[in-house]
């Protein structure tokens, strides 16, 4: 598929309204728009530190309940890190948003290449036939499942601090506050019972492995979606906003492959991995993924396909922060990240498993064998 066939999204909007939502990008002003001449929607600027950028990102809320993020991916020279991350999560069996690169136009004026991302809202779950009781966004780094504020170190004013309620009402907020309170209050068998009763542990470990392998430093204490699954009543977690991955952070800076430790960062993860049973299950999962999904052989064809799909459009896009030469070098940077990250995670698995003869070590050995085989067939 060539970039010439990239879909277009054409917005019609009153010029005064368009100017109004950009006048102060830190305010959530909305504009009524018409998309592709037929779809009525609300549009506003979205994001955190990116709101003040020359090329902002947008949230499009359609009348029928669907919501899409049009991400400028301004700090990502490749424009594919979100798309590649969500591909990887789906590959390992965790539902993640659909993505589509597109050309965006406003009143006929081209705004360049954007990444359209499906938002994690009720429509996301309906399309996948996933039943839920509540949906909650982790909007900032206060969503670390702890009791204290990262800003001043003191107690949070509310244990819901850092979260945004998408669906579920006041009772959903109260249930999450109770879970966080009990998570920090309980120990031993009582804590283990709480985790088994209120958390889908296998699903959580799969999410943790995905965040760790893709290297999303900002993905453990924010940038995730939490939902209560029905009929189990257990919390499940989904990825959300993965631009700062695959060797670059959320500002586009190149990062060392060991920046994100393999045990991640947040109170819930620390409590969960404090139990040997869950820790060893997680290490075995990492070992399996190193031997299957997280390999150059599996991922680099996807990287090349995504890059080739948008190359011509990126070349003529003068709204980008990075030049075309940097864009063309991104596949090699991502390849080096995968190679280096695999080596680092393998070393850490060996170190953390110690001298015990557990299945963790056997999983690490299997992953090392797979790495050797992959090296033998590397292009």
Task: Describe the protein.
By secondary structure, the protein is an alpha+beta fold. It has 11 helices and 11 strands. The protein has a 7-stranded mixed barrel with strand order 1-2-3-4-5-7-6. A hairpin with a 4-residue loop joins strand 4 (57-62) and strand 5 (67-71). The longest helix is centred in the C-terminal third of the chain and has 30 residues, at 324-353.
- Cα gyration radius (Å): 21 Å
Number of strands: 11
| Helix-strand topology string | EHEEEEHEEHEEHHHEEHHHHH
Number of structural units classed as domains: 3
Oligomeric status of the shown chains? single chain
Strand order of the largest sheet: 1-2-3-4-5-7-6
Return the average pLDDT rounded to an integer.
92
Shape: globular
End-to-end separation: 23 Å
How many helix segments? Answer: 11
Note the beta-strand portion: 15-25%
Class inferred from helices and paired strands: alpha+beta
Helix content: 40-55%
Low-confidence stretches: 355-360, 375-379
Sequence-ordered SSE layout with sheet pairings:
Elements: E1 8-12, H1 15-23, E2 31-35, E3 39-46, E4 57-62, E5 67-71, H2 81-91, E6 99-106, E7 109-118, H3 122-127, E8 132-138, E9 163-167, H4 169-185, H5 188-198, H6 201-214, E10 224-229, E11 235-239, H7 267-273, H8 276-290, H9 296-315, H10 324-353, H11 359-376
Helix pairs in contact: 4-5, 6-8, 8-10, 8-11, 9-10, 10-11
Organism: Thermobacillus xylanilyticus
InterPro entries: Spore_coat_CotH_CotH2/3/7
Keywords: Capsid protein, Virion
């Amino acid at each position: 598929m060539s970039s010439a066939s990239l879909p277009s999204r054409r917005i019609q909007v009153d010029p005064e309204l368009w100017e109004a939502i950009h006048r102060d990008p830190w305010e959530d002003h909305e504009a009524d728009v018409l998309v592709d001449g037929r779809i009525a929607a609300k549009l506003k600027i979205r994001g955190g530190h990116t709101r003040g950028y020359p090329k902002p990102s947008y949230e499009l809320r359609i009348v029928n309940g669907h919501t899409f993020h049009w991400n400028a991916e301004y700090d990502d020279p490749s424009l594919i890190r979100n798309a590649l991350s969500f591909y990887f999560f789906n590959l390992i069996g965790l539902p993640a948003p659909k993505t589509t690169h597109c050309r965006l136009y406003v009143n006929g004026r081209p705004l360049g290449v954007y990444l359209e991302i499906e938002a994690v809202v009720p429509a996301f779950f309906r399309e996948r036939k996933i039943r839920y009781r509540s949906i909650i966004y982790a909007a900032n780094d206060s969503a670390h499942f702890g009791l204290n504020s990262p800003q001043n170190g003191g107690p949070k004013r509310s244990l819901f601090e850092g979260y945004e309620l998408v669906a579920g009402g006041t009772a959903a907020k109260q249930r999450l506050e109770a879970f966080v309170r009990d998570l920090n209050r309980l120990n031993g068998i009582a804590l283990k019972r709480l985790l088994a009763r209120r958390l889908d542990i296998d699903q959580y470990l799969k999410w943790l492995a995905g965040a760790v392998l893709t290297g999303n430093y900002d993905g453990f204490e924010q940038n995730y979606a939490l939902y209560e699954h029905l009929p189990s009543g257990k919390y499940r977690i989904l990825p959300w906003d993965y631009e700062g991955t695959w060797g670059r952070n959320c500002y586009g800076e190149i990062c060392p492959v060991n920046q994100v430790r393999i045990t991640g960062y947040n109170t819930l993860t620390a409590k969960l991995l404090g139990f040997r049973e869950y820790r060893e299950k997680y290490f075995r999962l990492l070992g399996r993924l190193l031997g299957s999904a997280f390999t150059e052989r599996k991922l680099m064809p996807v990287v090349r396909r995504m890059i080739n799909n948008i190359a011509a459009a990126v070349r003529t896009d003068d709204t980008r922060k990075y030049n075309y030469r940097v864009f063309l070098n991104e596949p090699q940077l991502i390849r080096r990240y995968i190679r280096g990250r695999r080596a680092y995670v393998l070393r850490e698995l060996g170190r953390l498993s110690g001298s015990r003869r557990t299945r963790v070590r056997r999983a690490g050995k299997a992953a090392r064998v797979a790495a050797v085989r992959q090296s033998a067939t590397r292009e």
